[in-house]
Amino acid sequence: MFPFLGSPVKIYSNPETVKINVRNKATKETNEIKLLDYISKKCPSLIGKNAVYYPTIWLPNGHLQTVYAAYANFDGIHLINYERQLVETPDGGQIAVDWTPPISQKPFDNTPTIVVLHRLTGGSHESYIRCLLEVLITPPHNYRAVVINFRGCAESQITSPRLYSAGVTDDLRTCLRYVQKCIPDSPLIAVGFSMGANVLVKYLGEEGENTPLIAAVSVGNPFDLVGGSRALERTYLGKYAYSPTMATNLKKCLKRHEHIMKQDKKINISYGISSRSIREFDSRITSKCFGYETVDHYYRDASSYFYVTKVRVPLLCLNAEDDPIVSAECLPFDESIYNPYCILATTYCGGHLGWFTGFRSPTRWCIKPLSEFCIAIFEPLRLGVLLTI
């Protein structure tokens, strides 16, 4: 395989994807079109002759793409101005949500809105979020976005002895209710990255048709946490580089909120901080916090893999097959083909939340298909057309 020759996007979907009714409000005429056919027309970076990803020639594999995504300096580019609000949770906690454009500049109205969920220990400040929003909230689209920062992330403070996990969806529900209260007439699309994607897909499967979201996007989703954990531990870099790095980030978050988390008598803070891998941290802290018997009990319950078939809104999933953190063996190929609401797109290259292209100043190729999908879903609304399933 020669990555510089290009990595065509591979699509896995039901041959009879759900039909979308595009009805013109003025003429009352209704046209019925399959979701896959509609996306084929509107998203050339996903389907068609131009749906090819050309990796940066000096980032030819998933490891280099992932390392560059984690350590390259993206300061000074993709600048997004946020306004933060705090959402209270039933247990006395709080969740920081960041709006853009700031509410002071763009008061609440019915503007189509992107709801974003970040990766493990991430937040609204991260480059993969900023570069996507830079496209969607500026002309000619001018959408609104709101980033949900998981408890304790993005310099937010926790006020109850609870962090977050890959499988708890209650905080997402709380935030979506808050967003609906603020902008009740705005159509909503959610975009989740990595762990945030897992939470999003699990939530969608739990809710079925009852979600306020009209569509969703999953990027770099781990899907199967049990299989992913085992795949990570059986490679040298996974065991001695990626897993310890993720554990270190989690330990920093735990230590920063130690004064609150020590109120949870189910966990031993010092024991958690001595964890050498993400599996050890989840065994000592996460699984205990949320009442699981073992770490695999937590991983099985949290895996969004089992919820893909239950999603009932258009869902685009994008993954790179050489992602060193998300093993390709854990991707829901059969489930995506089974569910007519789901489209799974993969590239051979790309790493974890990488997909860098270009030589001197690499940019993320994935922004093209992701933004095309969001625009395709929102576009009929802008044209005075109602898009329904």
Automatic annotation (TrEMBL):
Keyword vocabulary terms for this entry: Hydrolase
Gene3D superfamilies xrefs: alpha/beta hydrolase
One family name in Pfam for this protein: Abhydrolase_1
Domain AB hydrolase-1: 112-221
Gene Ontology molecular-function annotations: acetylesterase activity; monoacylglycerol lipase activity
InterPro entries in alphabetical order: AB_hydrolase_1, AB_hydrolase_4_sf, AB_hydrolase_fold, ABHD4
Active-site residues annotated for this sequence: 194, 323, 352
Similarity annotation: Belongs to the AB hydrolase superfamily. AB hydrolase 4 family.
Name under which the protein is recorded: Alpha/Beta hydrolase protein
